[in-house]
Amino acid sequence: MSLITKLRNQRTETYQEFKQMIRTPMFVWGHEGLSTQGKNPAYFSHPFIIRPDGVGYSRPVCTHTDLATQVVFEVLGMNGYELNTIHRMNLNMTYAQDGNQQTPIHVDHEFPHQNLLIYFDSHNEGEGGQVIVEDEEYYPQEDDAIVFGGLPHSVILPHKGFRTALVTTFTAGYSRDDAANIPTTIMDESIKV
After folding, report:
1. Which pLDDT score, from 0 to 100, does residue 116 have?
2. Strand order in the sheet with 136-138
3. pLDDT the model gives residue 154
């Protein structure tokens, strides 16, 4: 059984608007330099929703978060996912560079989650740019969308050009009916609110 699932991406009008926006010269990217230990290659980054680490909740940090979120809802929805929570959403752009050619093997959160990657560039076998989930590799084509569980993974840098991906961590699968059936804790009568 494959760890990586390729999803349908119908490239809706919302998707096309988002894709056009991130390719304009006016779209702002931050540059994350080479880590001090040299383990993490440099890359460009644009956060939409920052991870809950340290504060216990995720926060939108970009004026374009609604558009990016709509893209994620559409892609997951057309594939039967009931999205519950987005924990993190970031546009990453890695590029060919000297030195370390692979990101550290990592998990995005220390709690159950899934990873959605939507790609805006193509990379064939032998060109780099692939994601590795445990020991399974995926070479993206432009407009591909994939999902995998919160497993250890890494990225190989492209040998030329860029690898641009919208990375979204999320939980899904709980319906409102499920939430209504979760037992509640009965408060101790001695506690006064």
Report:
1. 98
2. 136-138, 131-133, 153-155
3. 96
Q: Residue 193 domain-assigned?
A: no
Query: Helix (H, G, I), strand (E, B), or coil: what is residue 17?
Result: helix
Cβ-based neighbours of 64, under 8 Å, separated by 6 or more: 18, 21, 48
CATH number at residue 173: 2.60.120.620
CB atoms within 10 A of CB 187: 9
What are the 10-residue block averages of pLDDT along the chain, 193 residues in total? 95 98 96 70 95 90 97 96 95 91 92 96 94 96 97 96 97 65 46 41
Query: What distance in Å separates the CA atoms of residue 146 and residue 7, rounded to the nearest whole number?
Result: 5
Residue 188 DSSP class = P
Distance CA 91, CA 54 (A): 21
Q: Which residues pair with 31 in a beta bridge?
A: 44
Domain count, the chain: 1
